[in-house]
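Example record used in the benchmark description.
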Amino acid sequence: MKKLPIVALIGQTNAGKSSLLNRMAHKNIAIVAREAGTTRDSVVATIDQAFTLIDTAGLKNPEDDFEASIQDQIEDAIDSADLILLTVDSTKYPDFRDKDIARMALKSRKPVLLVLNKSDLKESLPFTEYIKFGIKADETYQTSATTGQGIKDLKSRIYRELNSYPNTNEADSEAKTETSIKVALIGRPNVGKSSLFNRLGQKQQAITSSKQGTTRDINRLELKFKGQTIEFLDTAGLRKPGKREVGIEKFSAIRTLSAIEESDICLLLVDSTEPHSKLDQSLAGQIIEAGKSVILVITKSDLLDNSTPVVSTISDKSKPTELSQIDNILDNLERDFNFLSFAPVIITSSETGKNVTKLFELITEVDLARHTELKTSELNKVLNEAAISHPPAGLKNTHPKLQYITQTDTCPPWFVIHGREMELLHWSYKRYLERCIREKFPFLGTPLKFSFHNDRKNGPRKSINRTKDLL
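Model output (structure tokens):
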């Protein structure tokens, strides 16, 4: 995947930024993550293979003070984006917060477009009310995320500003020719991303050295491992000259989301010396929703009393009994990240270098799983056994009838299950089918995507054996 320009949505809460992102992406990205026990909104989308659109408000550090967090997000967006969409609610008169945000955006000297959202409503104000922002009329767009009004014109302007246009013909072929594995180091501040990044560079010969850039850059390092090129993306970020918080890493939503979008595999770093936070879980959810593979990396094991590192999985019950602290860490992971039961866990120390080399082996294994393509006959055998062992429930005399399953894609693997009355299939049964597939084909570290298709009640049946339904 090539690195795309970044367009950031900034503005006050309830301006409709998330709805605007969903409309421009042609789909509703907001989901409920039952398995994580939380509700989350996806905040990043690739638009027409031309640019990456990010709504920073959807992912913030829950430990931060709210007002400080909003301020940080706006600064981060201005530093990181190639183009800024200043989004306001056109049904409300601009207040001092809108003016402050506009002033900060214009001060950056980056392209800024003013988006007057909710313009379809009767209460919407004329665009002349926003002239005081200092943004020209030809840089102002009246839109509606609900009806789609003005979205086409806005996207056309974004293409022109970025000189980046939809490229549907070359996107697939380019992806196929890329041979490097892109691995992003993801985690909350001070979890050890930079330390691991530097240690990785010492373990393998660097093809290109990591070059220090500006605050908007993701630090990169290309390494060779057994003939395979692996490019590591470090999201820790650099501090601007003159910043008071020297030596303190500040969470960057845009840098993190951009790295997730660009990567194939994410190393989600978790501090072994601190409790898991909501931000850790939110980052895990973003990785899975983006369809990226994940490896849980426990850092700073040298600070534990019994720090002999191990490689495991969250659901691994064969944990060494003599390592009580590590036992406790794995138990907490199983509790807090139960929706990542397929993810391998590796306990490391950047200080001593223990288990860092094993990461390379693990990355190649997970990459192989991402590209796994199963035979239709193998899949249908699993589906048949699952349905016989535990038939799906329905309503009264009506229940789903599973017919057959096919794999339609890889990276991540995508499966389509055909049948009848599929709308009655409970989400817990869908999770059951995923577990059955993973029992036969683990897909190490890789999320699986499913679609459920209702076949016509009348007409030719498409089941594999063409003789009977699986139920």
